[in-house]
Amino acid sequence: MTDITAEEKIKKAASEVFLLKGLDGARMQEIADKAGINKALLHYYYRSKEQLFKSVFEEKLLSFLPKIFQVFHSDQTIEEKVHLLAERYIDFLKLNPELPHFVLGELQRRPERLFEKIDAKLSMNVDVIGMQLKKEAQQGRIREIAPQHFIANLLSMIVFPFIASPLFMKVLQYDKDAYYDYLDHRKKEVPAFIMAALRV
Amino acid sequence: MTDITAEEKIKKAASEVFLLKGLDGARMQEIADKAGINKALLHYYYRSKEQLFKSVFEEKLLSFLPKIFQVFHSDQTIEEKVHLLAERYIDFLKLNPELPHFVLGELQRRPERLFEKIDAKLSMNVDVIGMQLKKEAQQGRIREIAPQHFIANLLSMIVFPFIASPLFMKVLQYDKDAYYDYLDHRKKEVPAFIMAALRV
DNA sequence: ATTTAGTTTAACCATTTGGTTAATAATTTC
DNA sequence: GAAATTATTAACCAAATGGTTAAACTAAAT
């Protein structure tokens, strides 16, 4: 049959259940069922629920964060980077729509989880972006903006519509398909909005 | 002593616990302890955990949503409304920082909860805002923008920094005080950013 | 072929948890 | 002020839940 190992089946099942129901809402039995194995085998590979969750969470965190900040290390212009990030990240989140709420929610409840895995790497990127913003402003290509607001605005407009999707769908009276079209439009709309705000 | 009734004490305690730990993470015993009453009294006033939660959730939902959309029914300009909303809503969220994650998370897991309490009221506001945006665009005060993106951008930039606060604090290397100063700055920064993007 | 190490399961277990009951205390009604 | 209604509690209970154990099965090592 498939040569997918039991440990992998567990990890995949656990990811699905934890992402949908959170640490507290998830049941070890449900994970076992979904993985098609016995509950005892969960504890054989991952000692406890906490440890299984940690394993899933860290994997998700590492699929979530670096993707954002990598983009800013190429040698493109701010405008190009903004377009690239919006395009890639919205596509990524369309495949993982529960991810932001899962990761950010867990970080809000246990902020130290961030400290453990991702250290100072993140903070450096702000400086990198800040320097580029300053340089392009001096060249007269864009107006000046503080990097901490630039980043916040960019990420907010990209990520928040995924977290607030039920609310937005209701307000806009979109069904799921229409909403995904709407998110696709935002791949152009958000960069356009940002670059308009940065016009000199 | 205080003439605060047991039912109120329960509601308050339940709010705190549910907001912090969610429906699944909350324990009836902890709520009872925090309210300083017996666990059986919880079931005396609210029949079940589900019902107590529902009561808390609906109260929070109604403190969360209308505040947003009321602003748009005055006779002020878009610019004035954007400033007003940012100012009021950031101040409100500073007092209830866990609220967005709580409400939006529960809506993501059980979208029908929105259907129950807040009906068609919401969707109408989009049209109202859309008409004003169009009118001011025709007057040449702002450039044209689709209301569904205008609203999304505005709300995202206001609300998301509360949901992502631990991440942002880490990235920006702010402690809690510095982060609250940062959020205060956003009361001016976000409207300025939006109006810059809307310049003709 | 036998041993050895690794994998998987069924049956159990202790604790936690939401919820109930029956009795007691406080308050209101008449 | 007695009766009746409402509020509050201590003690319990059944179900669910994370976790364990000892046995059985599999596959590699010798």
Layout: helices, strands, pairs:
Two copies of one chain form a homodimer.
Chain A: H1 6-25, H2 28-35, H3 39-45, H4 49-64, H5 66-70, H6 78-95, H7 99-109, H8 112-117, H9 121-138, H10 147-163, H11 165-172, H12 176-198
Helix pairs in contact in A: 1-2, 1-4, 6-10, 6-12, 10-12
Chain B binds a DNA duplex (30 and 30 nucleotides) through residues 6, 27-29, 37-45, 47-49.
Q: What would your notes on this structure say?
A:
The structure is a homodimer of 200-residue chains. The first copy, chain A, has helices at 6-25, 28-35, 39-45, 49-64, 66-70, 78-95, 99-109, 112-117, 121-138, 147-163, 165-172, 176-198. By secondary structure, chain A is mainly alpha-helical. Chain A is globular and about 65 Å long. The mean pLDDT of chain A is 93. The interface between A and B is large, with 58 and 58 residues. Chain B binds a DNA duplex (30 and 30 nucleotides) through helix 3.
SS field, number of helical segments of chain A = 12
- Would you report the number of β strands of chain A? 0
Give the CA-based shape of chain A. Answer: globular
The radius of gyration over CA of chain A amounts to 20 Å
Distance between the termini of chain A: 62 Å
Low-confidence stretches of chain A: none
Q: Give me the strand/helix succession of chain A.
A: HHHHHHHHHHHH
* Helix/strand structural class of chain A: mainly alpha
**Main sheet overview of chain A:** none
Oligomeric organization of the protein chains:
homodimer
Quote the beta fraction of chain A. Answer: under 5%
Q: What helical percentage do the residues of chain A reach?
A: over 70%
Mean pLDDT of chain A: 93
Determine the most extensive contact between two protein chains: A-B, 58 and 58 residues
